[in-house]
Amino acid sequence: MPILSVQHLSISDQQKDIVKNVSFSIGKGEWFACLGESGSGKSLTASAIVRLLPSHITVSSGNVVFGEQNLLQLTRKEIQMIRGKEIACIFQDYQGTFTPFMRIGKQIDEMVKTHTDWSYKQRKDEILRSFKEINLPETRVYESYPFQLSGGQLQRAAIAQALVLKPKLIIADEPTTALDSITAANVLKQLELLRGKTNCAVFFITHDLRLVKRYADRASVMLNGEIVESGSAESLIKHPKHDVTKRLFSAIPSLKKPAETGVVS
Ligand SMILES: Nc1ncnc2c1ncn2[C@@H]1O[C@H](COP(=O)(O)OP(=O)(O)OP(=O)(O)O)[C@@H](O)[C@H]1O
Ligand SMILES: [Mg+2]
To answer: CDD domains, from UniProt (predicted)?
Structure first.
């Protein structure tokens, strides 16, 4: 049974459907990539899964089944209990993750407190561990206000927050776009390690096809709000069928000839 099953999901801005009849499922421990050109509906699909669509945008039809629950039918309180604990999100716009006037450690602590009965010490230890795992200076970040950190540190703090409770599903919307390549590789390594340890699934939105090649089990490609092609990452890379998939992959020559270029980083 899949951990997440998105069934015939359509999302509308009141005038028209922006995302149309999108279906896919993600198995336990599976790394599922979502690709597509800018504006194709990837982020809105991710936001709809966790019920974080902007107020004027709504799900017009479909189901989002997580485990055995239809997330679209839960009360606000019920979905809040799932978000952060069972499904963690790392969004493209990580700037919105933290409020400006509270220390980062305190903000993450509030979130952990909501979802666990851990003592203060246990919560702090886990938060510091999570920072350390992605090479953040843990004590300093814990004590800092958001404006005291660089953009990359802030993004990693958002990632640390997402990973701290070892969720069953991680929704990662271009999580490494703002990071330098070494930090990005480290963050992805941590995601991969967490997956190995906890068998969590990953819904991974990216433009970086090298990451699809390296990490994803399966992938789908979106165009104008629809999924136009899905399959194993390997088959999509080797035998793309739709023009948009061909276009995406042909933009990175090293993907076509991995044997000649060695390991793709
Ligand atoms: N808050 C919003 N209000 C109105 N329209 C929106 C909003 N967010 C997204 N859209 C529109 O919905 C469509 C899909 O947007 P979405 O953000 O899902 O694209 P995306 O595939 O994530 O693109 P990118 O790769 O650039 O992040 C786009 O046409 C976009 O303009
Ligand atoms: Mg997006």
So the answer is: ABC_NikE_OppD_transporters
Q: Is the pTM of this model over 0.85?
A: yes
Q: What is the reported pLDDT for 31?
A: 96
Q: Is 55 in the pocket of ligand 1 (CB under 6 A)?
A: no
Phi-psi region of 225 (alpha: psi -120 to 50; beta: other; left: phi over 0): left
Match 């076509």 to its residue by tokens: 256
Q: Alpha-carbon distance 201 to 217, whole Å?
A: 10
Q: Is the CB of 14 under 6 A from ligand 1?
A: no
User: Cα torsion at 167, 200, 12, 236 (round to 10°)?
Assistant: 160
DSSP code at position 245: H
24's tokens? 């896919």
Token pair listed for 215 = 């990490």
Q: What angle do CA 159, 87, 144 make, to 5 degrees?
A: 30
42 lines ligand 1 (CB under 6 A): yes
CA of 204 to the centre of ligand 1 (A): 16
- Residue 54: both structure tokens together: 């902007």
